[in-house]
Amino acid sequence: MFRNGRGERFKFDEVVVRIISFINQDTSANYKFWVGTDSQNYDKEKENIISTGIVVYREGKGGIFFVSEETIPKIDSINLKILTETDKSLKMMKQLEETDLILHLNVDNISIHIDASEDGE
Fold first, then answer.
1. Is 20 in contact with 104 (CB distance < 8 Å)?
2. Beta bridge partners of 50
3. Which residues contact 79 (CB under 8 A, 6 or more apart)?
4. Residue 81, SS3?
5. DSSP string, 18-58
C-alpha cells in the first residue's frame, strides 16, 4: 500500500493511474521523476522501517508523491542497509517499467536516488 501527502491510501495500480492522470493534465510541461528508499531504526533492538517513495515533479508547477512503508528486521551493517535500500528502489523502478507509465512520461530526468554519501546528499 502507498500513501500520498494527504494520507490517502492507494494500491500500486492506483498510484500508476494517478501519476498518468497528473502528467496528462499538462503534457507540454517538463517533468522529473524519482524513486528512492530510506530506512530508519524503529525498535533499536529488532526492527527498521523502510520507506520507498515515488516523486513526480512538474517543473515550476509542483508535483505529487507516493510512499510505501514496511517493517523489516534490523539492519546493523551500513553496507547492507545501503544495498537493501538500493535493491528496493531498483525493484520499484522495475515494477513501474512493467506498466504503461513509462509511455506517458515526458521527462528530462528519471532518477533512482541512493542516499549513500557521507553528508546525506
1. yes
2. 39, 70
3. none
4. helix
5. HHHHHHHTTTTS-EEEEEEEEEEEEETTTEEEEEEEEEEEE
Q: Which three cell numbers stand for residue 3?
A: 500513501
Q: pLDDT tens for residues 32-50? A: 899 999 988 766 678 889 9
Residue 83 neighbours by CB under 8 Å, 6+ apart: none
- Whole-prediction pTM: 0.86
The full set of domain ranges for the chain reads 2-113
Overall size of the chain counted in residues: 121
Question: Can you tell me the distance from the alpha carbon of 22 to that of 18, in angstroms, rounded to the nearest whole number?
Answer: 6
Which of 1-5, 78-82, 85-89 is the least confident region? 78-82
